[in-house]
Design goal:
InterPro entries: GntR_C, TF_FadR/GntR_C, Tscrpt_reg_HTH_GntR, WH-like_DNA-bd_sf, WH_DNA-bd_sf
CATH class of the largest domain: Mainly Alpha
Shape: globular
GO molecular function, one term: DNA binding
CATH architecture of the largest domain: Up-down Bundle
Organism: Pseudomonas fragi
Helix content: 55-70%
Distance between the termini: 30 Å
Strand order of the largest sheet: 1-3-2
CATH superfamily of the largest domain: GntR ligand-binding domain-like
Keywords: DNA-binding, Transcription, Transcription regulation
Strand content: under 5%
Protein name: GntR family transcriptional regulator
Order of helices and strands: HEHHEEHHHHHH
Amino acid sequence: MAVKNNPLNSIVVSGPIPAHLARSEIEETLRNAILDGRLPCGTAIRQEALAKLFGVSRMPVREALRQLEAQGLLQVVQYKGAVVAPLIEDNSLETYELRQLLEAQALRLSVPLLSKEDFEEAEGYIEALEIEKDFGKIGTLNRQFHQALYCKAPNKKLLALIEAGLIEEERFLRFNLEQMNLGKLCQDDHRALLRYARARDVEACIAELELHLQRGVKAITYYLSMVKTKQP
């Protein structure tokens, strides 16, 4: 009789986790496993199994799962509990429209206040993206680049909403880059965004951001059309 593969076996926990770090460690570990595909869409996430895996009580596990649900990485399904969310939702295009509005506003607030150090940090992320091959790390670097341009926006709630959108995008970034060969185009967009930000040209920055996000919209539209053609 074949042994059913357990996706949680792909997660390695090294040593006991201090109680005060348990929630954040579990959240980060599961997020990485979802983003890099070790926990595929539809995988059921059992609190009891996770508590045993991490050697903790159910409380920090429950808190970590709530955070991941808020980030759109998990869904609570009747009779199944928490499961890994689909790669693309029906409202993903609406999410990109919302991102355009939120991130454009962040650029308006942040770009005039960015320092030389902020620009250097953003440029460092571009340089790191040039050589990074790990798609999980690429997603993180991409998010950090954008956040470096938005970081001086004084509206913290706005920045939190933007971060949630960027985290949601990380799962789809592998498809954007690998299947549609968008790596070079995305880097060209990043360089243009940084160039306009350095010049304090906010409107040009926003126009470049719209072009950048439109590549994501096209990739999602293409993905959904492929899924539709494969359905019986």
